[in-house]
Amino acid sequence: MTMPNPPALAGHYRVRVTKDHLVFAAGHFITYNGDHCERIHGHNYRVAVEVEGPLDDNHYVFDFIALLELSRSIVAEWDHRMLLPDGSGLIAVHDDPGEGPAHVRVCYKERRWVFPKEECVILPIPNTTTELLARLFGQRLWERMGQQGLKPPSVLRVEVEENFGQMAAAEWRNPSE
Ligand SMILES: Nc1nc2c(c(=O)[nH]1)N=C([C@H](O)[C@H](O)COP(=O)(O)OP(=O)(O)OP(=O)(O)O)CN2
């Protein structure tokens, strides 16, 4: 009797990229448990990206090189930057009225920080948790795949490791499949 192919071999594959250059060193602080706010600190965040789907004409799920280049473009925007949330109800991020538009003033209750704007990225998320960084990274990756005319995968998964042994992942399934 001939056995049918096991489902994983029938047409669904997975590739994963995580390289030494998929790392961004960035400063941040988060709010938690309502009215707590961390002290400013930084991490060497490490990113891994996984894509699942059928094989294309090259017998790829997705070209490693294209996936690395797109991921690297996002890492480069966040590397050596202060990550600030735009959308927190607790942390306010504004142009600094004293220093002018080249600086941002960040306020949490009575605490104040002023940063050169060029050294910050103001992200459309309510808190710079690892989960939300992974989600935003994946959203940007998905958009950039579309901008480059690349076929959207069946599944995209982004993992962001904040520290050894501490990571968060966000995952999307292609709604048109
Ligand atoms: N699920 C999540 N939990 C926590 C997050 C998060 O993003 N998602 N973030 C934090 C803090 O940002 C904090 O940076 C993590 O704290 P800590 O582990 O202390 O980080 P360190 O880099 O200082 O690591 P050490 O082990 O203390 O050296 C908290 N929770």
TrEMBL record:
The keyword Metal-binding is assigned to this record: yes
Catalysed reactions, as listed in the record: 7,8-dihydroneopterin 3'-triphosphate + H2O = 6-carboxy-5,6,7,8-tetrahydropterin + triphosphate + acetaldehyde + 2 H(+)
Pathway connected to this protein: Purine metabolism; 7-cyano-7-deazaguanine biosynthesis
Cofactor: Zn(2+)
Source superkingdom: Bacteria
PANTHER family documented for this protein: 6-PYRUVOYL TETRAHYDROBIOPTERIN SYNTHASE, PYRUVOYL TETRAHYDROBIOPTERIN SYNTHASE
Protein name: 6-carboxy-5,6,7,8-tetrahydropterin synthase
UniProt family annotation: Belongs to the PTPS family. QueD subfamily.
Its EC number(s): 4.1.2.50
InterPro entries: 6-PTP_synth/QueD, 6-PTP_synth/QueD_sf
Phylogenetic placement of the source organism: Bacteria, Pseudomonadati, Planctomycetota, Planctomycetia, Isosphaerales
One Gene Ontology term of the molecular function aspect: 6-carboxytetrahydropterin synthase activity
One Pfam match: PTPS
N-terminal signal peptide: none
